[in-house]
Amino acid sequence: MTEELEQYVLSHTEPEGDYLYRLYRATHIRLLHGRMASGHLQGRLLKMLVRMIRPRTILEVGTFSGYSAICMAEGLEPGGKVYTYEINDEQEDFTRPWIEGSPVADRIDFRIGDAAEEAPRLGILFDMVFIDGDKRTYVETFEKLLPVVRRGGFVLADNTLWDGHVVDAAYDHDQQTTGIRRFNDFIANDPRVEQVILPLRDGLTLIRIK
User: Fold this and answer.
1) What would the pLDDT profile of 121-142 be if each residue is shown by its tens digit?
2) In terms of CB atoms within 10 Å, which of 35, 55, 102, 110 comes out highest?
3) What is the pLDDT confidence band of residue 117, given thresholds at 50, 70 and 90?
4) Could you tell me if 191 and 185 are in contact, meaning their C-beta atoms sit under 8 angstroms apart?
5) Using one digit for the tens of pLDDT, what is the confidence trace for 41-98?
6) Secondary structure element (H or E) that encloses residue 41, with its range
7) Torsional class of 88: left (φ above 0), alpha (ψ -120 to 50), beta (otherwise)
8) Run of H or E including 61
9) Shortest CA distance to 133 belongs to which of 148, 119, 152, 153?
């Protein structure tokens, strides 16, 4: 997509709002891998998907700066909750103030820890899961969390095209690339699910549990 076309798309998409704009900017200024944040277009898509699916409970694997958690929380109906886990405890000092200062702070439960290990202990059946953690272990994360996703629920997996590396032989020995390829192949052949990859940004896979 050309820069001109990208700007056209964004100008005809719901604005992200001042708070998210400032968060995205701060993420790029203060954090090493700022591009990991969802950003305007994907953030609005996440909000729209939540509006469409109408989940009561959402689990996010990988909070990073909190941008995507806030976007999903914006789409929730009253009483809904996003449980978001960040495994890197060094991220908390940046992320927690942004989440707690957001207009949807009451809809977000931010925790430090391994979501795949800790979320099943909550005793919650999730309507929707957004996986955006360690690319090397996407398959294992999916399998550990599947028992706590309701039948007919949705799992969203981010970065499933991985900058195009999934079809580039130069990355055959890169563990993150091979992890994403393994996940994509696994999901494509899993009879328990229906799936589609959206070529949006870095690839977003929508998975419905049958």
Assistant:
1) 999 999 999 999 999 999 999 9
2) 55
3) very high
4) no
5) 999 999 999 999 999 999 999 999 999 999 999 999 999 999 999 999 999 999 999 9
6) helix 39-53
7) beta
8) strand 57-61
9) 119
- The closest alpha carbon to 108, from 145, 152, 71, belongs to 71
Helix, strand, coil share of the chain (percent; to 5): 50, 20, 25
Closest listed residue to residue 19, CA positions, set 123, 125, 98: 98
- Beta strand 204-209 with 149-158: parallel, antiparallel or unpaired? antiparallel
Contact 61, 129 (CB under 8 A): yes
Task: Tell me the C-alpha distance between 51 and 72, whole Å.
Answer: 9
Element (H, E) at 155: strand 149-158
End-to-end CA distance of the chain: 34
The answer to whether 78 touches 107, Cβ cutoff 8 Å, is: no
When pLDDT is cut at 50, 70 and 90, the band that residue 38 belongs to is confident
Residue in 38, 68, 49, 71 with CA at minimum distance from that of residue 127: 49
Residue 113: CB atoms within 10 A of its CB come to 13
